[in-house]
Design a protein that fits this description.
Elements: H1 34-46, H2 48-53, H3 60-69, H4 74-90, H5 101-109, E1 121-125, E2 131-136, H6 142-145, H7 151-176, E3 182-187, H8 198-214, E4 219-225, H9 231-238, H10 244-247, E5 250-252, H11 257-264, E6 311-315, E7 320-327, E8 335-342, E9 346-353, E10 368-377, E11 383-388, E12 393-400, E13 409-418
Parallel strand pairs: 2-3, 3-4, 4-5
Antiparallel strand pairs: 1-2, 6-13, 7-12, 8-11, 8-13, 9-10, 9-12
Helix pairs in contact: 1-3, 5-7, 7-8
Domain GOLD: 307-417
InterPro entries: CRAL-TRIO_dom, CRAL-TRIO_dom_sf, GOLD_dom, GOLD_dom_sf, SEC14/CRAL-TRIO_domain
GO cellular component, one term: cytoplasm
Length: 420
């Protein structure tokens, strides 16, 4: 049995960009047409500086994913790949060794203790050498997650996981001379309507949109198993954040789902719980099963910074505001620390070091990205962190509310220079 789903046309990411990802067929193994070669040459020229930051992406298959994913429209591709490569560099992922599934898992575990309760794991490679991700959505404690971790930690973890998978894929592509991707299994066993937390769903769907923008045309197959009776309702919530080509790869399987997985993934890859023959101490193998997040991991609002330390910033609707911090001289070990809360709703947050002559504008394409732009809310846990600020210049803490048509946003923040 295969459930037919409506094909919702959707925006291909956050903000007001209405370009949809194309349903162009997957690149034939090892083949790149002459017209695509010309596009690759043009793309390389347009993103030369970003490829200098993250040299690993300067290969044909990596860049073709962007061209295919965005219908070969260079003007659409360039700003998106620029952001992605700058973000990967800002997060330091280009310097990480994420060359095995185990190293990727370890990196994700380092992001946040509460996020270790997220169910699901990378389990191996399917018949076509695509990386297999198995997600136990029905075991997710969504209501417990939101009060326990920062929104930005979830972004960092999923971006680290995605970039780790890309490191593995790029290595295989160099060895085999053809493109690879990922196969994803969503197991909804145990999922109930009562588990669907709307605050968590909003964060997750926003994050999924950003991941698709940063890592286009990677997913090859999506299998959904153990579907509840309200699957159409759930699909209606999730599908608007999925690119059209991703929606077309979704297969919702019926009672014979184990046979389908064995045929498409491989029984030697799957543990007993999913119809496989892979040996392990339990039927679930090494798949993280999630579970209830302990109450002691929840953030205590009593730990908020006192009001007298905070500065109030009101960001009007459809506008961007920033807090400039000027640092003199090159100081090894110097860092910038921040803490902030919104009174309600969400806002985009990023940190740039201003390009020469651009100190008085919020964002400029020549700025150096210090912290990527994430759409964040702080209803439960405030945002805080620190970044290296050894280089002199004007560091801009940017609060972008351009996505909000009517609502202004009130931010209460604290920024501190920390010298060694």
């Amino acid at each position: 049995m295969k459930l037919k789903l409506s094909k919702n046309r959707l925006s291909s990411g956050s903000g007001d960009d209405k370009t949809t990802m194309a349903s162009t067929p997957t690149l034939a193994p090892g083949e790149i047409s002459e017209s695509d070669r010309k596009l690759l040459d043009e793309l390389r020229k347009r993103i030369h500086n970003e490829l200098e930051l993250v040299k690993a992406y300067d290969d044909d298959f990596s860049l073709m994913r962007w061209l295919i994913g965005w219908d070969r429209k260079i003007e659409v591709v360039v700003p998106k790949i620029k952001f992605s490569l700058r973000a990967i560099h800002a997060l330091g992922l280009d310097k990480e060794d994420l060359s095995t599934l185990e190293k990727v898992t370890q990196k994700c575990d380092e992001c946040s203790v509460p996020l270790r309760y997220l169910p699901g794991s990378l389990i191996g490679f399917d018949h076509e050498n695509n990386v297999v991700s198995l997600q136990m959505i029905g075991h997710l404690d969504a209501a417990g997650l939101m009060p326990a971790t920062r929104n930005s930690d979830l972004y960092r973890m999923r971006i680290a996981e995605s970039e780790g998978v890309m490191q593995i894929i790029r290595k295989m592509e160099k060895e085999h001379g053809k493109p690879f991707g990922t196969s994803v299994i969503f197991d909804l066993d145990g999922l109930s309507m009562g588990q669907i937390d709307m605050a968590a769903l909003k964060v997750v769907t926003t994050m999924l949109s950003q991941l698709q923008e940063m890592f286009p045309d990677v997913i090859r197959k999506i299998f959904v198993v153990n579907t509840p009776t309200f699957i159409q309702v759930l699909w209606g919530m999730i599908s608007p954040c999925l690119a059209k080509q991703t929606q077309q790869k979704v297969k919702i399987l019926g009672n014979d789902w184990k046979q389908h997985l064995k045929e498409n993934i491989g029984e030697e890859v799957l543990f007993e719980r999913w119809g496989g023959t892979r040996q392990a101490e339990t039927e679930y193998g090494n798949v993280r099963m999630g579970g209830k997040i302990p109450a002691e991991l929840r953030y205590d609002p009593a730990n908020d910074l006192p009001a007298e330390k905070l500065t109030k910033l009101v960001v009007s609707s459809r506008s961007t505001s920033f807090v400039p911090i000027t640092l003199e001289g090159n100081v090894p070990g110097r860092k910038l620390y921040w803490w902030w809360r919104l009174e309600n709703n969400d806002i985009h947050f990023s940190i740039h070091r201003a390009a020469e002559g651009q100190e008085k504008v919020a964002e400029h394409d020549d700025d150096y990205m210090v912290h990527p732009k994430f759409k964040l809310q702080t209803d439960f846990v405030p945002e805080d962190g620190e970044v290296s600020a050894e280089e002199p210049g004007v560091y801009k803490f940017i609060f972008d509310n351009t996505h909000s048509t009517f609502r202004s946003k009130t931010v209460k923040y604290f920024i501190e220079v920390r010298n060694p």
